[in-house]
């Protein structure tokens, strides 16, 4: 195993996890406003707490490499759904630069989902909780 393959997976997990952890804690700063924003996409505002939990806990799981396959699949679905409801649909009523900017946000969500689908397929990789056996030593593939 090369140094690149050893450190690329945890760095990739960090980069994917960071936006969710940051966003989850940000939502805690304005729960009522976040509930209103969730409702603006046609979903019930009470989903604010499960959303915050998914972003923070899911982000932390991805970061440390714990239960990565199932967590990544959940976050891929979340990214696609939120991208569609809160970026793609609103962009349909816009024109020019505003529409382009909103569609860029949608495609960013799609790209993040792609990264999560890779984690779902390939697993957490080295330097992760998932890649350790009960004895605390690296598990064999």
UniProtKB/TrEMBL annotation:
Membrane topology: Multi-pass membrane protein
Keyword terms of this UniProt record: Cell membrane, Membrane, Transmembrane, Transmembrane helix
Pfam families, A to Z: DoxX (PF07681)
Record localization: Cell membrane
Transmembrane segments: 6-25, 46-66, 72-89, 110-129
GO CC, alphabetical: plasma membrane
Family, as annotated: Belongs to the DoxX family.
PANTHER family according to UniProt: INNER MEMBRANE PROTEIN YPHA-RELATED, OXIDOREDUCTASE CATD-RELATED
Protein name stated in the entry: DoxX family protein
Organism name: Halovulum dunhuangense
